Amino acid sequence: MAEAAVAGKMLFALRETIARLEGRPIPALAAAAHETLAEKPRPGSAGAAQSLLAVGVEDLDDAMQGGVPLDALTEIRSLGLRDAGAASGFTLALAARLHAQAAGTDAAISPVLWIGDTVAAMEAGLPYAIGIMDFGLEPAGFLQASPRKLEEALWLAEAALASAAFAVVILEVRGNPARFGLTESRRLALRAKAAGRPLFLLRQGGEEEASSALFRFSVEPAPAQARPLPDGSVLGGSIGHPAFRLTLEKSRNPAPLSITLEWNAHDRRFAPVSDAQHPALPGEHAAHSGADLSASADRPHRAQALGPVLAFDRQA
User: Fold this and answer.
1) Alpha helices in the chain (DSSP H)
2) Using an 8 Å Cβ cutoff, are 281 and 292 in contact?
3) Together in a domain, 231 and 179
4) How far is the C-alpha of 138 from the C-alpha of 167, rounded, in Å?
5) 129/125 Cα distance (integer angstroms)
6) Is residue 292, in this structure, part of any structural domain at all?
7) Do the domain assignments include residue 117?
8) Residue 134 and residue 154: Cα distance in Å, rounded?
9) Given a cut of 80, is residue 236 above it in pLDDT?
10) Residue 31 is part of which domain span?
């Protein structure tokens, strides 16, 4: 007993030393994390199912063994910055579905925190209040932070998770910064697990890399269908619900799952879209919803690449 007490004191002193070096009250955060873990239901209990967010699409939920975990790190990435709107929209749709799940259980609805890296915001833009409302979220329950440095964004994400004051924390980064690697993602994953809160890592224009995320989605825009009418028909020439081409790149299943989903913000639910309705990729269609434009012809050739040696006229 005495040796265990001495070891506990040494561990506590080590945590205090690390806290002073990092400038954060780690002991207080650890105590709050322990209280949160004590309040969480044990596996197999009646409330254990609340730790998952079901997407509502059977194939996708089965691949994730029930849904998106609400006490872990989940990564959502876009292939390029041109697809930032699709990745951001899918992330907001998940947050709106989480709010709908909390409202269905009569639980207190906590706000959403969006932490946007300055570099990512310069390219992808900032969240728009009207757009947030169109995706099913209330702007009054949406908080946004724009730290100047990536280190400040990481610290804010850790502090927000430890406070357990937010329904979900969204951390947006651009690409694959060297200062945000496997070690940093591991710390964020541990914070999310200790606090019992979800963290969505929104990577804009990034490549696949090793991380502590349980699941990683690749999101691309997909062509929307025509707007449905109450009688079951569609309104010709209209634009319906936003659609996403989703690929579950990282999961417990060995093979990735690709599926096209559309988001109904009014009902806050996803619906699968048959690939037969979209026979081609989004880039192979014209911007106009009517007939495709014909391919361009008789255009001048591109300028030839510069060579290693430049020729100059000889001076007289």
Assistant:
1) 2-22, 26-39, 58-63, 84-104, 118-124, 129-134, 150-163, 182-195
2) no
3) yes
4) 13
5) 13
6) no
7) yes
8) 29
9) no
10) 1-38
